[in-house]
Design goal:
By secondary structure, the chain is α/β, with parallel strands linked by helices. It is built from 14 helices and 16 strands. The strands form 3 sheets. The chain has a 10-stranded mixed β-sheet, with helices on both faces. Strands 5-4-8-9 form a 4-stranded mixed β-sheet.
């Protein structure tokens, strides 16, 4: 193995240990039960349809997506010695992934989420039994893998973690100078950002999670979700950004470096306070010629790097740097894995050495592949398809005007 893929770190016994540089993903492994009716469901009775077991959990989905794009990674999680745990671990092991970071014991009940969809494939209701993530994915367990965190190109945490575990994970990464990605998971759990905000580099909320995070960080109820009940109203990209701008600014003011707001069919906003340092394609930062060199070469040759590097704002400026990325048209099969694969595709690209604009284009292409799949992460990615879709998104991305909001 090339020595550039290894880092020397100090371990507990005072010895220096050579470890492989791997992205570290911390959070839930969950067995999803998906129930999809074949006809519109009626209350208080059974409905014909299909019930499937799906391998899920935000962290697990992100990690699977990244691994299928060629990224070396280390997953830190917890599952039980039960049927659900066995299903999750058998698949993870068969994919050639290490089980070292996954805690198992008799007391753990493997997290399970039961999802009920409507006939269009959209989530109608769900029941989650995921207490084990908070109870067993403790700061002490995560601390065991500090040598992995210290050599990682990036650390991702999902908000299924308890606030103490979340804070400990982010602080540990920050002490090593490792960028941290916070995935909010849900409106309720997104508020846990408060415990770790000063250590977070990237955050990827949807509109509702963004509002919840801004309110939690403001210690008030200043922001309201955008009402979209009237489907005859179509907001322009600029007007939608104008409405979300104050909430985005709160996250940036509190210390998050890059806010990525996912908007469903309206695409994605990439925002930072001044031009982010991740805007520059820097191969020295994460060594693109590793296990995912194919991704680096393919995207870099089709999406020329440093697209917005000459933007008229600078790091530390009071102005916001903001870019809109359109969504891709897709033949939707299931929507549940889209957000996780957007994160996974973006992180895989960052680890490969691509800049944040290139990386987010790959993330959106990965999300499209996910919604066209029966599973939360596609069984495989076509590099040609990912590259073609990423290229479409990349060249359609546009900077947004912030002047009227300053």
């Amino acid at each position: 193995m090339d020595s550039l893929h290894r880092h020397s770190v100090l371990v507990e016994d005072g010895k220096v240990k050579e470890v492989e540089a791997e992205a570290v993903i911390i959070g839930g492994m969950v067995l999803d039960i998906h129930a999809t009716p074949s006809v519109p469901a009626n209350p208080r009775t059974t409905t014909p349809g299909k019930v499937n077991y799906m391998l899920g959990g935000v962290a697990r989905n992100v990690a699977e997506c990244m691994s299928k794009l060629g990224t070396r990674l280390h997953l830190i999680s917890a599952v039980g010695l039960d049927m659900a745990g066995n299903l999750l671990l058998e698949h993870w092991k068969s994919a050639g992934q290490s089980l070292e970071g996954i805690q198992r014991c008799q007391e753990i009940e493997t997290p399970v989420v039961s999802n009920i969809f409507d006939v269009k494939g959209e989530l109608a209701a769900a029941v989650a039994s995921v207490e084990a993530i908070e109870k067993f994915l403790t700061p002490e367990w995560i601390q065991k893998f500090d040598y992995k965190i210290g050599s990682a190109p990036v650390v991702m945490v999902d908000a299924n973690l308890s606030p103490p575990a979340l804070e400990a994970s982010c602080r540990m990464a920050a002490e090593f100078g490792i960028p941290v990605w916070f995935e909010p998971v849900s409106v309720v759990k997104s508020k846990r950002v408060v415990s770790a905000v000063k250590h977070i580099t990237f955050a990827s909320p949807n509109e509702d999670e963004l509002i919840a995070m801004a309110n939690a960080l403001s210690c008030g109820d200043l922001f309201r979700p955008i009402e979209k009940n009237n489907k005859t109203i179509k907001f322009s990209t600029q007007s939608l950004f104008h409405m979300l701008y104050p909430a985005i600014w709160v996250l940036l003011e509190k210390g998050i470096k890059v806010v990525i707001v996912t908007l469903g069919r309206d695409g994605v906003f990439l925002c930072s306070k001044g031009v982010p340092r991740f805007l520059k394609n820097d191969s020295k930062r994460s060594n693109p010629h590793g296990s995912n060199s194919d991704l680096y070469v393919s995207i870099n040759s089709n999406c020329p790097p440093n697209r917005f590097c000459k933007a008229p704002v600078v790091e530390g400026s009071s102005k916001m740097f903001a870019v809109h990325f359109p969504a891709l048209p897709a033949s939707v099969v299931r929507l549940t894995g889209a957000g996780d694969c957007l994160v996974g595709g973006t992180l895989a690209s960052i680890c490969a050495g691509l800049d944040i604009v290139q990386s987010l284009a790959v993330g959106i292409a990965s999300a499209k592949a996910a919604v066209e799949s029966e599973t939360n992460a596609p069984s495989a990615f076509s590099m040609a398809k990912i590259t073609g879709d990423a290229k479409s998104v990349y060249f359609a991305s546009k900077m947004l005007s912030c002047q009227s909001m300053l």
